[in-house]
Amino acid sequence: MSVETFVTDKAGLQKFYEAVMASRETYAPVEKFGKFDFKRVARVTECDPESPIAKTQSIKPLFFPRSAKVMKFVATSAGTDVSETDEDPLAVKRAILGVKHCDARSLQVLDKVYNWDYIDTDYQKRRENTVIISTRCDRADTHCFCTSLDYDVENLDALDVLIVNGSDGKIYIKARTPKGESFLKETVTGQASPVTDEIASPDLKKQYDAFAGSFRLKMDYKEVNAKLSKIFDTPEFENVSGNCVSCNTCAFVCPTCHCFKISDEKVKDTGVRYKSYDSCNNGYFTLMAGGHNPRPVKYRRWRQRAMHKFVYYKERFGENLCVGCGKCTIACPVNISIFEVVNQVSAAGVQE
Amino acid sequence: MNYTKEIQDIAAKLFAEGKIDVFVGYRVNGFDDNQVPVLITDPQDVSKLVFTDKSVFNLVNYLKNDHTRRKRVGLVVKGCDSRSLNLMLTESQVKRENLYVVGICCEGVVDEAGQKMQNCTDCMVPDAVVSDELLGTPSGSDTLSGSYKMNADIAMLAEKPLTERAAYFEEVFENCIRCNACRHSCPLCYCAKCCIDQETATLYNGANTTSGAFHALMTWSLHLAGRCVDCRNCEKACPSHLPLHLLHKQNESVIYENFQEHLAGVVTGDRGAFYKYSLKDPDDFIM
Amino acid sequence: MEQLLVPMICKVDKVIQETPDVKTYRLKFRDEGMMEKFTYLPGQFVEFSLLGSGECTFCIASSATRTGYFDCSIKKAGVVTADIHNSLEEGDEVGIRGPFGNWFPLEDLKGKNLLFVGGGIGLAPLRSLIQYCIDNRNDYKDFTILYGARTSADMCYKEEIKEWQDNKTVNVVLTIDKPEETWTSNVGVVPKILEEVVNPVIENTKVITCGPPIMIKYTILSLKKLGFADPDIITTLEMKMQCGLGKCGRCNIGSTYVCKDGPVFTNEQLKSLPDEF
Amino acid sequence: MEAEVKDQLVSIEKPELIAPPNWEPVIMGILCNWCSYAGSDLTGTSRIQYPPNIRIIRVPCSSRVDPWFLIKSLQTTADGVLVSGCHPGDCHYISGNYFARRRFLVTKKLLNFVGFHENRIQFSWVSAAEGPKFAKVVNKVTEDIKKLGPLHLYKKENFEK
Predict the structure, then answer these.
(1) DSSP letter string, chain C
(2) What dotted CATH number matches D25-130?
(3) pTM of this structure
(4) ipTM of the complex as predicted
(5) Sequence ranges of the domains in chain D
């Protein structure tokens, strides 16, 4: 497989973005109230593909919407009728600009659960029709720890097109998958010229090394996985969850959290059934109708969250349900870091 | 403003005398110089406690969760926090005898960028109104009838034409992701079942639509009207950085200007503007 | 996935008031051909939705050997079940998704003595299996049903219990928690009666139990005391579920999803799970 | 979303552009049992005509009206809301309408603040003896809302009237 690489400069990159936007529906980070969220854009000036990672929401809603309509229904005394909803606006051919590596990786993790047993065809369709264009970060943010997890950040194949800021203002555009390659054929214009791997690789490597060297947080995920799986009953969970306010926002911003709930909204006889996000930190996440609740207190819910991310999902699907993006820590009003939690708990468990 | 030493001493003394089970304060968060709340149960940990102008979060929020329920709690409160504590006491959510309150005469806290917070520049009640021990020099400001400072954002928006305001708020509600962090981080939202919580909501079951967000945030802000103390916990918790204070400040300014009320939670035993009335309340908007 | 979440429409054929707070709904598919495709085994569950109120998980309380319909027994407990009790009448239509989950290990049960231990509404999943076993009576040896309820009025399936009592090949033991004037049978909680009255044979016997969590817990303890081995004790669990597809992440105990790997577990499997339930 | 805002914009400035022909507004009328409901009854029995656009809901007292009711009706069927109760001092429950008055003002100002025209949320005091006044009030509210056109802001999704 010949993987094509192009080199260009800042102006050329803008031209490339314009070509992308001309060729298909494009989503990119758009700033609102100081926070970037992925929205449909038509012009490069509307968006910022190099938005700071700390201020950007994940791309999960583009594949697993915050609220998806499951169906419409009419329920009258004369009878009940169920109809499927209108066409899925997310299933069209589209491209996403300015995706972070961690976000791209999260889709690989989510693929596992959505393609397990019952296959989520809507999700698959959205995946297939999307080209992910990702810019590699130049340096790590305070809460990032993607290099400490079980994936190869440098050669990530979850993204279709990789953009790297090389030395001397050179910008490399590189296809990472066959889909990306054919996409580049359509969109790369005269502004970018092809380069061979021999020329590009050292520069890419240099950029990656500088990026990988800038991490504040480092851990050995294998150690954490192994230790956590043995210490279900440690009281340390009570300590780490102490200042959690159970606000649920960590799960809503997390690119890998995939729990949802189903709810009906009905006015008069017609209604809609929605599938929307839910969070395991919520007190009544597992509350049953009879009043029995397996996780009535905060530390049990935190235990579920941490263990699901680093033990249960690993056992079931072979991946960590965490991509090290630090979004939960940034969104958390009291800055609880999943990194600190798992490390603190596994360290405490070993001492005993 | 730095009361680190004093608070550490007080906490150590309280633990030594066996007066409290848990002390709620602030610690430095470990990666920059911003602070996060900490619940201390072990007397050896009191050295973690700090208090500076970065101690932002309203700790009264912790009085409503498992870790402090039925325990004797030591607590640090600033001016605005003490007002919310006052309301919780009035509404019988906590028992005064279970609390040891360290009040601060607050000089204003700063946000992450080091800018003084907007609610602090407008603050009318900088000194803690409930306390067992007061740190700092009271500002002596008149909390009951001092002049009300109109919030600059409210004044600016109120002058805009209706359609522009509508467009602005459309954007606000559109960017809400319905995580309900605002409701959970509010010290006064202690209801076990909330009308905007996802599973117990009646009209909108937490689906993330613009109309659902409108419904939830409006209902929520009206439930807090006359009670909101402007501590901005909700805004700090919002992952979309929505300007939630606009809704609350709007209600507060209407209440303050039309009903000649003092601010919420300034007087112990006062339940807020919606629990009383005056014969002189404005009547001209009613046909 | 959205398609998988769209329910099929069923018509309520019959409503049976079992106890003051339990009703059994007999359902038939509106589209009659669907019934043939709807194959299930005892122990599986469905997602039952009252459109506009929400969706709930219920086990199927009848056996596929009785064709043409299926039953769901619903206890009034929460918001949706209250709505179902208040508004659902004969001829109304509801949504059904399923069947989901695993089933009782029917092959393992063949040629064994069977002991059913049920409490309250917990008889519903057992009823499905009991019906199945009665319809294939020759495959099984001794047949004992121990059923307890709080009061005699709280007993579900009274008519059917009478049928079982009349059936010579089935041994039925009933008990209630507190003495009542007209009650002639046993009085006492299920684990106590299990030890004192039933005295089951341990050899070649499988126990299937379901009921309130606290009853399951003590029943398993007394079964262990009587000398039953862990793989011979089978129970069905209940967890809050939303999708039934292993996606919504609600029903997991450790890395086990109750909706996919359960709800039927042997005590051996239960022991390997984290102690969260 | 843009379309919705635009709708609102147009509907305030040029209702005839957005209102379909023969459009009639729907007004939610929430009336207190003791005064306004009796007042509306008197209007009927005295054969005074008032527009049929109002849909009346009877509540025990105007202070029973949770702001939530107004939000809910504006998000579903209604193009405007009218809440009516006893005159100050006449409340059957002594002081209910005084409490209600405070809440109404805050609700009205807040809804206006986020973009609803103030005429969409109206209040009145109508006593049991004021049949003609009730007709006048309903006339005025209906006219006001006809001027504004149909409400499109924050309508519940997929909801058909």
Answers:
(1) -TTTTPPEEEEEEEEEEEETTEEEEEEEESSTTHHHH----TT-EEEEEETTTEEEEEE--S-TTSTT-EEEEEE--SHHHHHHHHH--TT-EEEEEEEES----HHHHTTSEEEEEEEGGGHHHHHHHHHHHHHTGGG---EEEEEEESSGGG-S-HHHHHHHHH-TT-EEEEEESS--TT--SEES-HHHHIIIII----TTEEEEEES-HHHHHHHHHHHHHHT--GGGEEEE-----S-SSS-S--SEETTEEHHHH-SEEEHHHHHTS-TT-
(2) 3.40.50
(3) 0.89
(4) 0.88
(5) 25-130
